Amino acid sequence: MIGLEHYLVLTGILFSIGIVGVIRRTNLLMLFFSTEILLNAVNIGFAAVSKYYGDLNGQIFSFFIIAIAASEVAVGLGLLVLWYKKEGTIDLTSLQMMKG
Amino acid sequence: MYEIIAFYTFSALVIGLFGIVVLSKNALYSMTALAGGMVFISGFFFILDAEFLGVVQIVVYTGAIMALYAFGMMFFDTTRDVKEDIRCKKIFYTLSILSAVLVLIVLSAPIFSANIEAIYPTLEGVGNVQTIGLLLFTKYLVAFELAAIMLLVAMIAGIVLVGKKLDAQSDDLEVAKELK
Q: What domains sit in chain A, N to C, each tagged with a CATH number?
């Protein structure tokens, strides 16, 4: 039988993959993909806790997280397109203009 | 039995696909792998009796978000490999260790909270979609409407950010034609 621990371990593994992506990649589009992985990992955790404690709050939270992810992508991708038109690159190092 | 097989199959697939997303050099491969991983994650929701979330996952994530990324990638040069040079190894290792400790604390939290009681228990004999609807339109009505406003603002922001610049470019083209 699959217990709550299995799902939490899976959530931890997926979250770690996302964190590795956020730390390691310097391409902004890849950073966005990693953020999606982080949000999805948390969603699985919420749904699993919601099932094993018989509480629906977790599923509602997952629902709102999906809504937030959708709006984040809409605004973020717009900014990314603007930045690409301005600079010709979406590398993270091109944002270092305030370096002292 | 089927639950165990499904859990391990979906786990292996999702971890493999997300590993490709993080490690791949080509942005197009990453996006395709991410879309596949999203579909398989909805499988977990169906195993966990959260049918509504599973359907929303497929429709919103794979249908809307990945389609948006696919359209957004038309603006970027995706056929080239992504060139990255990683410096600051010390910061990288420090952050990795810190986040590993943080994830360990988060995962060990349920051990110390075994006596949690459900505030909104799942109802017997009522479907998942129905219970979520009941909860969403009574207790979480304000949050739901705020989420709707947030999505509207995000939509307008996306249109303004991308569309305004395109307009300016077409104006420039017309001016250039008139000058000729």
A: 4-88 (1.10.287.3510)
